[in-house]
Amino acid sequence: MNKIAPVARAFDLSDYISSQESKSFLRFLTCGSVDDGKSTLIGRLLYDTKLVFEDQLAALENDSRKHGTVADDIDLALLVDGLEAEREQGITIDVAYRFFSTEKRKFIVADTPGHEQYTRNMATGASTADLAILLVDVRNGLLTQTRRHAFIASLLGVRHVVLAVNKIDLVDYDQKRFEEIKADFESFSSGFDFDSSEVIPLSARFGDNVTAPSENLSWFSGPTLLEHLEEVEVGHEHSESAFRFPVQWVNRPNLDFRGYSGTVRGGTVKVGDEIVVAQSGKTSQIEKIVTMDGDLLRADDGQSVTLTLADEIDISRGDILAPVHSRPDVSDQFAAHVIWMSENAMLPGRPYLLKVGTKTVGASVTEIKHKIDVNTFDHHAAKQLSLNEIAFCNLALNESIAFDPYEANRDTGSFILIDRMTNETVAAGMIWFGLRRATNVHRQALDVNKKARGGQKGQTPAVLWFTGLSGSGKSTIANAVEQKLLGLGRHTYLLDGDNIRHGLNKDLGFTDADRVENIRRVAETSKLFVDAGLITLVSFISPFEAERQLARDLLEPGEFFEIFVDTSLEECESRDPKGLYAKARKGAISNFTGIDSAYEAPAAPELHLKTKGRSVDSLADEIVDRLLEDGFIGSDSTWVI
Amino acid sequence: MGIDSHSHLRRLENESIHIIREVAAEFDNPVMLYSIGKDSAVMLHLALKAFYPSRPPFPLLHVDTTWKFKEMISFRDHMVEKHGLDLIVHTNEEGVKNDINPFDHGSSNYTHIMKTEALKEALTKYKFDAAFGGARRDEEKSRAKERVFSFRSSSHGWDPKNQRPELWSLYNGRIAQSESIRAFPLSNWTELDIWQYILAEGIEIVPLYFAAKRPVVERDGSLLVLDDDRFRLEPGEKVEHRNVRFRTLGCYPLTGAVESDADTLEDIVSEMLIARTSERSGRLIDHDSSGSIEKKKREGYF
To answer: N or C: which terminus of chain B carries fewer CB neighbours within 10 A?
Structure first.
């Protein structure tokens, strides 16, 4: 009888709805082998978070009797192993998506298979995931496939991993065994560049430490799996990157309206912004941001909108709109990691279709640089690629396209290859960098890039951007930091606001327009210094958020470290090392930041440095410690390839 | 419009709009399956948003089994007129001629002939190369594995073991002559998301979703509403007037109602939150045997 109890209005619906809307969102995937209990774990999460309805439970009890592999109990794995073939074989053979939510977050889970021949499915699940759960059986510890899963997750840009040590009940909740596996994992995962990695003991079958702490694991002081999933900070990877807008559809309801429909893939766009059509180089300004709910003043990463421009320029599906000062690469050749997903081998030179963003072009692999053994990470020479093999390749296209490196933008840096004859999706690819066509540039020349220059100096180049009021201590602190970095053997350069204004920027004054240009130039300069492999310290008042954002956008994610030197206006004015505040107060200087020109404090700097009552030396130490801690200026990239 | 621009509903909305536009851009002759239910209502709303200020560049297709609730048909015509849309209504005429009905032929045969066959007939007749459906992955186990762009052979069949890998938001829309794609823009929505979105956006839905006194009979644990005089009572069955509403809509002799007093959207969402029965249990066709949706999908059902 489908009877629903009368509605109890014990809670306020609008409160509930708004609490639902403030929930954050996490997409994760689970990977492990057939016997590690992956489906059982997801079944457990659904079951414990009350996402299983009564009728589904009744069907489950029925199915458990028929197919169940767990004596007498409800087999939670049957909740997720959907297809009949899987139920009969007792294994998972395809990616399944599951949904659940808690008070804090909504979750989408991709359940992916562990068999070696299904690597492509794991890559599929990982392509949209923020986090990966690597499942192991406590009795087996880390296996070759655990390394493979970690590698694929890392290759697909998953930034967070959890090692779930399952079936802990089968070793009597033995702490020692767990600690051994944990130590193994920590030494091996340090070779990857994950932002977070957590090791958690649990029993999916009995529910220990999945959603509730367990007395059996009283020795474990870490979070339950669900707590960790609720709390882990994944950030919005593209909110910091430059604006990208792959045009999906030209919107022409009548002769008076010409708009470009698409989804913002990275960054933010505002009415009035100068944009460029990346492929053609034509520029215009954003006139309107149109939606059915009314025009917007800005649109952020992920928003689907329709843009109109001030000028009539030729734009069609597949074009990418980008900021004039921060363009994607445009090339007809690039190097990329390719995961082969078809039974038919990939052969260099064979023509395929390549879809990147909303653009589809003809493409072929011109050279397999090396094949990567996913178990040992060794590189091998290869003449062709078979199903589930991964290789680093050069590709050539039959026309130039716009793209970004995958590390910088998962949407504009990813592509699929499609077989021209069967129309199958045969490969997934992640762009590493563009190759120039110019025949007078030898390929060796391309190898000397930022990474190579930084590598030679044993460091990862970056910009340390000091912002704050005049007299806040920026330059003094930056100077002290540079000395300490020098002592650590780092190669540095300091761009100081006052010094630059004596040379490169001596033609600029202090109007808002000149201040913007001042920062644009120093941002471009710091980008060159970073490209030269240097840790570049920039000490500029840089009062406006937009220009600091511009500087951030010019650099690759993770290269820009903003330090807000926070000294109160009163304090700066009382210090007044150059007597400028006194002059400004008398009206002798106009447009002085803090007096008659605004200072927009950073909303989310990498480091908020409160200077009050502290010595220059301790402030500089704090910065250097943070940089080392965050691996910001560590020795060269830990990327494993 | 009370939705925060970063909420999960906006994320779902943005993703769906992206999918709908990709289909419109990549196919020559797409169509939107319009079943008149709440999921179709949301899908249509998203299509209107996706192309604004243009109208959706494809027609709606309604497969009419002739056993739909009368209120569904009048609501359909109202929506088409209100938004100036193109509507194609298709019925399996052969089935009508043979008087195929849910009483004499069983839910399984009836559904196959009047829905699955009729749909295939229409797709073939109009040479549609892509068809939008409002299915969601949270509805049922086999749907959880469905792609957003789901490839169908020239006989409209689905091969669950041979699906195209789908990565990032890159959908492969390449097909050969007479093959097609079913596109599911609501793949990542849950039932609760649908209702919250309807509430937040003020989307119009068929009045059958709201509780009202309706004539019902109880049969095999389901409550069936008598929508017209074609309903045949079995011996011992008696018609009662009860306050009921629908959580899902289909052909009236095959769609179970639930007893409820929820007569506003707010009440429906509140009721959802304490519901302990999944929505497809109201659809009698899914219960023929476990795994039965998968069988229907292989044959070409949505």
So the answer is: N
